[in-house]
């Protein structure tokens, strides 16, 4: 918790800092990358940097964390920081890197706010930063320990055993160990990071959900042809190639109970749901499960046939699909035309909902679920790329 003195200062200065936080985070990244160009080249997603998405996500996380020190809500803090900690662990972030961020973040704060940053204001925001940083460092230490690795030591080479087209613009890769030893297990819904060396020498990293069941023994990821890393993988990686990946992480995992499930996805957001459904089918789960998927068309729908097969293997599962373009097909049964709509979907009491897809889609689904009296704490989600969910006030 913040000290009483710092709490009073944060309460008084949060409106000013909050109004300038986007300028602060933009300047912060510029300063940090000027001093450490290797971080932009080899660690951060430079595409998100160019679009400003990472800056907005960091600004939202800092502002939300600071506000939550004034109106404590531990569940909300845990939600924000758990997602960040898992992302950091999948990148191999180490404790020493928080000092680098601190140096350039506070230099940016002083430059943007000028004389408003008195010693008292600087001390209070320094306390906020290190409270957030030390909490993340502790959470990440726990994640590394659970994975059985030293802090930051998450990378391994794997071999591509199989490459297969899953839709017109998506391929899946089945990954196995180079030496034949078992790969670490994972929880259904988790992801791993993939690092590639691009033609210009940059090492860029992206996250991909594991779309296989833990019982398979291998790891499978699905890659949609979009963005520089996914495009590189799509066009250049084939059977027997070696790929650098991280240990699996991620907190979009099934709770240890028998609550009814609602799995909601759009586009390539189907991949964690495929992994979860594969696990449920392998374990012969008999709870009530509703599967909702939205896509542009049948040809765009990755894992379309596999999704149908998995739902058919589960005795109390039902599926609803929406395609914006049905082509020559007609709406029938679970297949509808247009955008996903929960209006006619029955949701059992106590349902846990899992969402993955574009952020606007998930925010819309969340609002619809809340309107159907699904408690906020029962709505779980996964965002790939910068997490702007916190900034959106969720």
Number of helical stretches of at least 4 residues: 11
CATH superfamily of the largest domain: Globins
Strand content: 15-25%
The CATH architecture category of the largest domain equals: Orthogonal Bundle
The low-confidence parts are none
What is the CATH top level name of the largest domain? Answer: Mainly Alpha
The CATH topology annotation of the largest domain reads as Globin-like
State the separation between the terminal residues, measured CA to CA.
Answer: 22 Å
Oligomer: single chain
Q: How much is the average pLDDT?
A: 93
Shape: globular
Biggest sheet descriptor? 6 strands, antiparallel
Count of separate structural domains: 3
Major sheet strand order: 4-3-6-1-2-5
Order of helices and strands: HHHHHHHEEEEEHEEHEHEEEHE
Rounded to the nearest angstrom, the radius of gyration is 22 Å
Structural class: alpha/beta
User: How much helical structure, as a percent, in the residues?
Assistant: 40-55%
Q: What's the number of extended β-strand segments?
A: 12
